[in-house]
Amino acid sequence: MGLNGTPSGERVHIGFFGRRNAGKSSLVNAVTDQDLAVVSDTKGTTTDPVYKSMELLPLGPVMIIDTPGFDDEGLLGKQRVRKTKQVLNKSDVAVLVTDAAAGMADCEKQLIQIFRKKEIPYIIAYNKCDLLTHRPSLSANAMYVSAVTKEGIYSLKERIGHLTHTEDLTHRLIGDLLHPGDIAVLVTPIDSAAPKGRMILPQQQMIRDVLESDAINVVVKENSLSQALQSLSQKPAVVITDSQAFHAVAAAVPQDIPLTSFSILMARYKGFLKIAVQGASAISRLQDGDTVLISEGCTHHRQCNDIGTVKLPRWLEKFTGKEIKIVTSSGTTFPEDLSPYALVLHCGGCMLNAREVRYRMKCAADQGVPITNYGVAIAYMNGILRRSLGLFPDILTLLDTAESPKSIESLS
Predict the structure, then answer these.
(1) Of the four, 32, 244, 249, 347, which is 20 to 30 A from 16 by CA?
(2) How far apart (Å, rounded) are the C-alpha atoms in residues 226 and 221?
(3) Strand pairing of 122-127 and 93-99?
């Protein structure tokens, strides 16, 4: 993805839900003005959620999601319904598509109950209204539309736009902590796991946010950091490092220069930092035989020294001295039942929207399972969590119970 692209985690997610053959896919095609979804008179044509990134005025960048029918049957049908429920966890707005001629079905009433429980703003779109000879009056959050004649499509887009809001530039990764002319040093290791020819998403976003603050980016590899710091005539306002290089970077950066990580800033951006800090101390309480879930919000080709499946399990074992069982998940496969786990260790969530991050946090909180994230956990195990949170005085107050009682010499 280029620097000018909008990542999926920053887009408003609009899910289209309903029973089979209500015309969800046809309505999605009408709203997007393209043949995004396969359309057929056969029930259950949509077998997996279909995602489409696009610009939808007046919202701007959005993610449109067409889902399988919520009334699907059989073993495969149950799996499709489960995938639809997963989409609900990331939907900022829901459009319930119902057949205007057939009336509201029980599964559609169940969907409305879920919308309300999850506090998802929703619209009921009575599709196929062109087939009606009489149109009964509707509730305030319902409207008649026709995917065939395009009646009501423009109004539907407008209604969707008024059900949500896009945050302005006051919601920042680092920009609210910088002043024009400040120097931000970004430490970005380039190893076998780094994508060839480009930078990973949090690094891209951080560079952009620094630029929007009229501050100065200095981007270096970890082995050039000391030289870069010596060459600067002005003391940096902050050093931001990839969490995997925390130990080496902390040793190289003078104590009077604030130090944090991309992952910690991403946790703050997604509203996850407070809970992540509170959950960090659970690492020291792990016992032999405990199971830790290491979860990532994206799917990627795992390299030989992958952080989620190789490095973090090794560091946990080295720090705790315990025999710990590791279970991993990625993408949308976050488990609903977290009771088997003593700890959930989550990535920064750069590819997840804020609603899904909140959902995962709530799952852990409701089940009494501690949850933290990569950057916080690595800083904790290196004994530098307090230092890495120095930019956030309100979070520092949580460290009375979350400060690491020990540290290891090196996480390598």
Answers:
(1) 347
(2) 10
(3) parallel
